[in-house]
Write a structure and sequence with these properties.
Layout: H1 3-6, H2 9-15, E1 21-22, E2 48-59, E3 64-76, E4 80-93, E5 96-111, E6 116-125, E7 132-133, E8 136-137, E9 150-159, E10 162-171, E11 204-210, E12 213-214, E13 219-230, E14 235-237, E15 243-245, E16 251-263, E17 268-279, E18 289-301
Antiparallel strand pairs: 1-18, 2-3, 2-18, 3-4, 4-5, 5-6, 6-9, 7-8, 9-10, 10-11, 11-13, 12-13, 13-16, 14-15, 16-17, 17-18
């Protein structure tokens, strides 16, 4: 694809912000260091890196989301590196405001060749997805974490300047959410939110394609397409104790992202990431519905 064609992506992104789709910042695996564009083609082999970031987004049911994270990346020789990331999330809307620590991500990366990198790790929740308010369980839209321990595996490949990433995030435990919409018969919009009592969430696979464009020695612009496929239908347990399939929860969400990297010097940089969905699946009971997400990050190598 010619670089000029890739410049069309921002227009598509901003034309789509009135639709809703699965966001990624909360679930986390598409924002892991090895899975996202860096705007930095440096081949420096040994470094420590610290990142601090914050994002704001617009969720379903008129809920605003605010998140932050702290990340440490450690190079272990020429081939191996280690990443550790701590996240938090706040949600506000419908007279409900909540905040909490979310997850810890721990993963290792193996650089097999200059073009091929493998990543494996886990996401550990710091909250079980069972938050309540006034004695009533809240939906996933107000939980700081999915509440699941997840296995994460991915592979990245560079073809000249094109960067491809394929990854899997698979829950190996489930959360303790007990939300039933029938518990809020006179409280819209909670009465219309999908029930997630006994929630059983399926895994996701993603494919990211990105292409960095160096505008000058300090500024890099990177358009990116990010399809996420939810592997099977999610399930919940109804008021009678019967497990039900959540129809429409399996399927594809297609997101567009643009990254703006500004390199202050060889050790310090900022990155702005803006994303929105182009296509969505019918049901998204995990509370990751986003119409728009903007993330600002500062990173320092030392």
């Amino acid at each position: 694809m010619h670089p000029k064609q890739l410049l069309i992506l921002p227009a598509l992104l901003f034309a789509s912000i009135s639709s809703f789709g699965q966001g990624c910042s909360d679930a986390g695996f598409c924002t892991m260091d090895s899975f996202k564009p860096h705007g930095d083609e440096s081949e420096e082999a040994a470094f420590n890196q610290v990142k601090v970031g914050a994002f704001v987004g617009s969720a379903d049911y008129d809920i605003a989301v605010y998140g932050s994270y702290l990340e440490y990346n450690r190079q272990l020789g020429e081939s191996w590196s280690l990443d550790v990331k701590l996240t938090s999330l706040a949600q506000s809307g419908n007279d409900i405001s909540v905040f909490g620590l979310s997850d810890v991500f721990v993963n290792a990366n193996y650089k097999a060749t200059e073009s091929l990198t493998f990543t494996g790790g886990f996401k550990f929740p710091l909250i079980d997805g069972g938050r309540s308010l006034d004695g009533l369980p809240l939906p996933m839209d107000y939980q700081a974490s999915l509440g699941t321990v997840d296995l994460i595996f991915g592979v990245g490949y560079k073809l000249e300047r094109l960067h491809f990433v394929a990854a899997l995030q698979q829950p190996i435990t489930q959360n303790n959410n007990a939300f039933l919409s029938s518990s809020y018969p006179s409280t819209p919009p909670l009465s219309a939110v999908q029930s997630t009592n006994g929630f059983v969430r399926a895994g996701d696979v993603l494919l990211r394609v990105s292409y960095p464009l160096e505008l000058n020695e300090k500024f890099v612009f990177t358009p990116s397409l990010l399809p996420i496929y939810h592997l099977t239908e999610d399930r919940y347990t109804d008021e009678l104790g019967v497990e039900q399939i959540i129809e429409g929860s399996q399927g594809l969400t297609l997101n567009a992202n643009v990254y703006f990297d500004y390199n202050l010097d060889e050790h310090n940089a900022f990155q702005l990431n803006i994303g929105a969905p182009l296509a969505v699946r019918d049901a998204r009971p995990d509370g990751l519905t986003r119409s728009f997400v903007a993330n600002l990050e500062y990173r320092m190598k030392f």
